[in-house]
């Protein structure tokens, strides 16, 4: 008998878990609050370990309209080279990792996952129900209550409702409080054609190319630039110190900001970068507030995945990748023959597979890479034995969650 799986939230993490569990032969229902009419977001990193997972699920790479990332270049705020290209082909060779490394628009990735979820596997596909907002989850009974009063019962519940998760409270017993990290982020996209027809930004484009990530770094603020959608759009994320007198709010992905504020924030940057800011369209403000992660990812029949479990900030470009890793681990742990009685034990192995790794990436992602020693103490409060990874590329690229889950499962079965 297949398991009845209910997934709360159809973001990247929820769709990923749904695809993995449908491929195992389970009956998967996804409840999504929105109608996907205004799916937003800028570009997103899809690192080698995430592309590996997408490939194993049969996600259509063409549909991602991705740009293959070749390198990361670090510049100062005057657009002078600082450390030269950080990632070259050689580094990939030294890590022995050759899976694709993509830069893609979040909407393209989301659409590609939706298409994969709609594909039938052995006569079954994921059932996604839109306009279905979940009000609460009972983790022990496996009951999800919708805002319209309907209740739905499952053998396995996946809490994939993101940064502002409600299902997390079914695990922790409290509403996750947001804390300021002292940083905010402007996000916007500019058509590359528009940048090419402006003398200042055309010069900048020529310098940085369209095949990688470029970071322009001043001591307390930075601008990150990379292409997506086949190289026709440039994505900009600009991180700067937040105003400590402004209280942390439940900021949404839809909050807007003004070009004037953007220009003021980067007035000390070189004319080419200021021009880039001036050409911005539809600037969004992402308040980089952080929610404390829960002490466990599982309780009763409920497993948290993605930002609900580990609300990850953008410094490592790993938020999306970690959400997909959660899904592939679940897929490895719930083969077709799994019975409802086995769910709780399997979930404790899921927690073991993912907790330390995802929390390490999450905590390290709160600060720029060069400052990661600063978060060691905080990391130790969640993962006492954790070390700050010496090389974040090696750490975040050499993660094989499906294999790890299978190894832990085999060990647990030898020693029940
Ligand atoms: C609109 C949007 C824009 C984003 N833009 C960017 C970006 O530009 N760059 C970046 O790095 N990251 C962005 N992210 C975050 C990024 O997608 C996540 O960090 C990462 O993909 C983890 O995915 P997730 O599935 O855990 O969370 P999310 O992708 O946030 O998905 C959570 C899903 O759950 C749904 N949901 C929430 N509450 C409920 C409820 N009560 N009932 C039912 N459904 C619910 C939401 O509508 C959403 O679809 C964005 C997220 C969203 C939702
Ligand atoms: C409530 O929402 C669910 C999920 O979308 C739907 O199946 C159900 O018919 C709705 N019930 C009512 C009373 O509107
Ligand atoms: C999940 O893992 C964390 C970290 O190892 C641990 O503290 C917690 O107790 C685990 N939860 C369960 C239910 O095993
Ligand atoms: C996607 C990716 O490779 N993420 C990060 C891994 O680690 C390096 C080094 O800290 C980051 O700069 C990458 O962005
Ligand atoms: C989780 C996952 O996809 N793991 C894969 C990571 O990549 C290696 C080799 O590229 C595979 O063997 C793993 O299965």
Automatic annotation (TrEMBL):
Coiled coil: none annotated. Keywords: FAD, Flavoprotein, Monooxygenase, Oxidoreductase. GO terms for molecular function: FAD binding; monooxygenase activity. Residues 4-361 form the FAD-binding domain. The keyword Flavoprotein applies. Belongs to the paxM FAD-dependent monooxygenase family. This is FAD-binding domain-containing protein. It comes from Aspergillus nanangensis.
